[in-house]
Amino acid sequence: MNTGTGKPARILLLPGDGIGVEVIREARKVLEAAARLFGLSLEFHEGLIGGAAYEATGKPLPDETLEEALASDAVLMGAVGGPKWDGLPPALRPEAGLLAIRKGMGVFANLRPVKVFPALVHASSLRPEVVAGVDVLILRELTGGLYFGEPKGRFPAGAAAGGERAVDTLAYTRREIERIVRLGFELARSRRRQLASVDKANILATSQLWREVVNEVAREFPDVEVRHFYVDNAAMQLIRNPRQFDVIVTENMFGDILSDEAAELSGSLGMLPSASLGEPGRPGLYEPVHGSAPDIAGQGKANPLAAILTAALLLRYSLNRPDHGAATGGEAVSGPATAAAAVERAVERVLAEGARTADLARAGEPVISTAEMGDRVVAALEAEG
Ligand code: IPM
Ligand code: MG
Q1: In 3-state terms, what secondary structure has residue 198?
Q2: N or C: lower Cβ tally within 10 Å for the chain?
Q3: Atom 7, ligand 1: which residue's CA is nearest?
């Protein structure tokens, strides 16, 4: 951890698989430019995760990677997975590495902001008047629920039963619910003071506990308006009238599903960043919401903006500490929060100027490559810095 003034912030890059490698390269470029322009001192390390880690070490999350992650200020991850590893036993699949690093870092809160850039209102499959101005923060519980509950697995056929059985367990403790819900209220308080809690309390016991806890914590936040949604209705409302939402807080699997749906509001899954946070003072894990997209990997077609916007979240949530700024001692120095906002403005600007990767382009619009998009953002950042 950082103690001394001006000690560089330690960032662990985990590019992973597929387009993860290409988009993390661009995100790093942008972080380096931001560091240069805003007087931040960053130190980059690189590690293995996912299929790439499996190939090199036989494990999707080598011990060394988790140790490095825990010793860093922040971890910037690309994506994991690919058809090459689909046949592996569950514990060796790239996705197991992702789940293990989330659990190992204790990052229970996954922030997935969905903001529609004005230049992209036509990129969504929904009508522009539905998506214009959307600004939703999906807060997904990340280390509990169906992803981690025990028992889990495949069980051989019993004598009487209907053949082999597969089991997943959905379990939540009051403590797990309380900490994510409280963060939901705090985030709502810093925004438009509206919290939508999503559950399936008409069916699931975990959801009944969830709803109870939300109503209890709500008493501490009388200034925040709370609404409860069943998840099926939430999925519908999210595309019917997305502007009604400010902060959405929900459990792990519902959050996984709703955030992909919400991505379409922004025009492309290639636009959505995320930040995964644990207890205060612990390193955060930052990853674009999109996957490894093996179909376009290595072709320079991937949209790096989700990774670049993720890098902005890293600056905002993990490096915004007094000991990370001002490393160069110059007078024109400002902090990581300023740098984060500048990166977001740079992205908005290149989009307004018409820069489009293939996922964003409409018929006939010129398309630029992954690296060109990264360069454009750096240039926009320099122009304003
Ligand atoms: C996500 C992804 C992951 C998840 C997969 C790759 C395991 O879909 O981050 O949303 O389900 O959490
Ligand atoms: Mg997902």
Answers
A1: strand
A2: N
A3: 95
User: Is the distance from the beta carbon of residue 199 to the nearest atom of ligand 1 less than 6 Å?
Assistant: no
Cα(11)–Cα(324) distance, integer angstroms: 12
- Taking only the tens place, the pLDDT of each residue in 282-301 is 999 999 999 999 999 999 99
284-293 burial code (b ≥16 CB/10 A, e <16)? bbbbbbbbbb
Under DSSP, the state recorded for 88 is S
Query: What are the residue ranges spanned by the domains of the chain?
Result: 1-111+275-385, 124-266
CATH for 1-111+275-385, options being 3.40.50.360, 3.40.718.10, 2.40.30.20, 3.40.50.300? 3.40.718.10
Which atom of ligand 1 is closest in space to residue 142's alpha carbon? 12
Task: Give the DSSP letter string of 40-102.
Answer: --EEEEE---HHHHHHHHSSSS-HHHHHHHHTSSEEEEEE---GGGTTS-GGGSHHHHHHHHH
Q: Which residue bears the tokens 């991850």?
A: 77
Interval between CA 213 and ligand 2 midpoint (Å)? 25
**Domain 124-266 -> CATH class:** alpha beta
Looking from the CA of residue 252, the nearest atom of ligand 1 is: 12
| Predicted local distance difference test score (pLDDT) of residue 327 | 38
* Cα–ligand 1 centroid distance for 40 (angstroms): 31
- The pair of three-digit structure tokens given for residue 209, joined into one six-digit string: 């506990």
Structure tokens given for 283 = 């390193």
pLDDT digits (tens, 9 = 90+) for 315-351: 999 998 654 443 333 333 458 999 999 999 999 999 9
The single-letter DSSP state of residue 229 is E
- Smallest-distance ligand from the CA of 287: 1
Task: For residues 42 and 336, give the distance between their C-alpha atoms in angstroms, rounded to a whole number.
Answer: 11
Contact criterion met (CB below 8 Å) for 75 and 284 = yes
Reported as a single tens digit per residue, the pLDDT across 106-124 is: 999 999 999 999 999 998 8
Handedness of CA 85, 86, 87, 89 (dihedral sign): positive
Condensed to tens digits (0 to 9), the pLDDT of residues 162-192 reads: 889 999 999 999 999 999 999 999 999 999 9
In this structure, the residue with its CA closest to atom 8 of ligand 1 is 256
